[in-house]
Design the sequence.
């Protein structure tokens, strides 16, 4: 088609017309550009893992897997163990999820099933605004308002009545794992509630109507029909919330007290993986010290990567299931 | 199915108990929602009250003063934040827009699926990790902290947000618009730039605004990329102050007057971030009304 020799073009025009056509009137360039940009985005994702891995070779050679279970942290003698941070991150994040899940699910149910239509949008927006408040402002508010006014009295109360449990052992400090977990639970609330609300909204109407027609109350419909139906999506929402909690940095750094403590007590100050990086990275003078912190970043990256993979697959599964059932 | 047999026993002994459970649980979901709105209002009100006390024109135009010296402002951090976020936009927006054209066009191609999955995963990676990446890629090569490194870190955080919203908005553009343009003989790139992008513009702008609002509040990656700077600087190759990082430094300092300044800086930041969110929301609502009106 392109080399139709019977048609007589003036020589120059033929040449340029052919070239334009060959290049798809600019589309060849356009397509190449879009593919290139997409590849670049993908490359960035992969490069993160590569950079973290490549820049943490020293401690991996020196400490191996013992790094993850070591409890000493001494930059002067260059002895590094990450257990206090891993422990602190896991403890505060799981506690935050524990607090946040019932409340977040309640919000999702209220917004998707119960609230009057005119209230749904503005209320949903207010809850989502919680996610928009910058982390450092949560930290500031947590440090000077939330912890002294609410967390510390709660901690004292828990300690006074339940100090026989190792979880609530004294002495009571203001900045503590409990404070971090409570701040985190507020911060991950919008993630859990908005993803589960979307999951609930995706469930076909027929499911609700069938259950209500059988005589179930609204709550029975929600808890026995909708929840099981959307379970994997809601689980995905919870895992996404957990992922956010694990990586949250500044707010936690400001209220957790930054202490290498391995006790079970929630009322003691602790430390997390993200906050040790935030606190010490710019002061890390030796290569080994800096690479140790990068390795902690690597651990954090791997954990959040896996959690996100699982969560996305779960949420995608609900969406697919809904679309296939709608077709039948 | 077995779970549903009990509701069938209508008006049985359990009937009142079931009604009561229903009422209690439904009320609790409303309480949960109030419980979430409460901290939001508390934070905004407190920041406005504490921060408002020291808000003045000087706060926007003056440089920070040393501890104990009254007055002064955060002009350097406001300009710094603008520069760092501007750098992030300059990298992230073109990249995500162009990639979004591909992904929205080929959602099921291997590369399309990989990019969508990659951005989903990328959006879950902690921002502090992005800071480390900017450090190893830029600070280690340049051998000093810089606004550029900060902008780079924020660009990686921003890309998935802008890419995903743009992609979704492009896919919402009716097929016949696209087909009409192609049938008229427009090349794909002209269709994309002159038909699809204008049709989706509103949503794309919303995505960009949400992206800016998100990264403008990031303090964690700034600590070891932009690093902070007590002086005025507009040089992308030099360390630079940013609003969130300034709040952090002021807040964890032991000085009372710096705490006051932290609250005022927080007021400036939260007003900007939440304002941008409200604006983005309004834009979406306006667009939805316009579309449904037609």
Sequence:
């Amino acid at each position: 088609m392109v080399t139709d020799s019977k048609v007589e073009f003036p020589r120059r025009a033929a040449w340029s017309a052919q070239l334009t056509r060959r290049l798809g009137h600019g589309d060849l360039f356009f397509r190449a550009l879009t593919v290139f940009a997409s590849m670049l985005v993908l490359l960035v994702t992969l490069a993160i893992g590569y950079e973290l891995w490549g820049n943490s070779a020293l401690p991996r050679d020196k400490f191996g897997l013992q790094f993850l279970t070591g409890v000493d942290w001494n930059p002067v003698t260059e002895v590094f163990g990450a257990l206090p941070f891993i422990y602190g991150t896991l403890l505060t994040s799981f506690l935050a999820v524990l607090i946040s899940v019932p409340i977040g699910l309640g919000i999702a149910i209220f917004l998707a099933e119960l609230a009057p239509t005119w209230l749904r949008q503005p209320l949903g927006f207010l809850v989502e605004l919680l996610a928009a408040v910058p982390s450092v402002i949560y930290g500031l508010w947590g440090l000077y308002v939330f912890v002294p006014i609410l967390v510390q009295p709660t901690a004292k109360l828990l300690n006074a009545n339940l100090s026989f449990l190792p979880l609530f052992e004294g002495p009571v400090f203001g900045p503590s794992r409990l404070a971090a977990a409570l701040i985190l639970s507020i911060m991950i609330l919008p993630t859990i509630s908005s993803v589960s609300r979307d999951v609930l909204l995706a469930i076909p109407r027929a499911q609700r109507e069938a259950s209500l027609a059988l005589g179930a109350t609204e709550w029975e419909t929600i808890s026995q029909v909708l929840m099981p139906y959307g379970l994997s999506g809601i689980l995905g929402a919870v895992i996404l919330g957990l992922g956010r909690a694990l990586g949250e940095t500044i707010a936690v750094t400001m209220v957790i007290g930054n202490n290498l403590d391995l006790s079970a007590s929630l009322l003691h100050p602790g430390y997390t993986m993200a906050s040790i990086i935030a606190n010490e990275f710019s002061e890390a003078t030796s290569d080994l010290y800096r690479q140790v912190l990068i390795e902690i970043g690597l651990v954090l990256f791997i954990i959040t990567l896996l959690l996100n993979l699982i969560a996305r697959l779960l949420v995608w599964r609900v969406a697919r299931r809904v679309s296939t059932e709608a077709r039948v | 199915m077995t779970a549903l047999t009990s509701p069938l026993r209508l008006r049985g002994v359990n009937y009142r108990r079931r009604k009561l459970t229903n009422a209690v649980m439904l009320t609790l979901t409303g309480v949960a929602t109030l419980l979430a709105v409460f901290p939001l209002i508390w934070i905004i009100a407190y920041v406005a009250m504490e921060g408002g006390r020291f808000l003045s024109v000087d706060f926007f135009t003056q440089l920070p003063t040393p501890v104990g010296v009254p007055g002064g402002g955060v002009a350097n951090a406001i300009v710094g934040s603008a520069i760092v976020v501007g750098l992030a936009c300059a990298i992230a927006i073109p990249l995500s827009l162009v990639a979004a054209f591909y992904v929205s066009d080929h959602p099921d191609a291997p590369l399309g699926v990989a990019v969508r999955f990659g951005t989903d995963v990328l959006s879950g990676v902690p921002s502090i990790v992005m800071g480390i990446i900017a450090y190893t890629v830029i600070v280690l090569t340049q051998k000093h902290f810089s606004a550029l490194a900060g902008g780079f870190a924020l660009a990686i955080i921003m890309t998935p947000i802008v890419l995903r919203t743009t992609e979704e908005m492009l896919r919402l553009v009716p097929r016949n618009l696209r087909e009409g343009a192609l049938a008229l003989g427009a090349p794909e790139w002209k269709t994309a730039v002159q038909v699809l992008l204008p049709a989706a513009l509103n949503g794309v702008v919303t995505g960009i605004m949400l992206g800016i609002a998100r990264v403008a509040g990031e303090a964690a990656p700034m600590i070891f990329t932009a690093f902070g700077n007590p002086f005025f600087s507009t040089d992308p190759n030099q360390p630079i102050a940013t609003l969130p990082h300034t709040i952090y430094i002021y807040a964890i300092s032991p000085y009372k007057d710096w705490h006051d300044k932290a609250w005022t800086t927080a007021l400036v930041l939260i007003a900007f971030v939440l304002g941008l969110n409200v604006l983005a929301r309004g834009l979406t609502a306006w667009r939805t009304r316009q579309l449904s009106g037609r």
About this structure: DSSP finds eleven helices and no strands in chain B. Residues 2-52 of chain B form one domain. Chain B has a mean pLDDT of 90. Chain B touches chain A through 92 residues (CB under 8 Å).
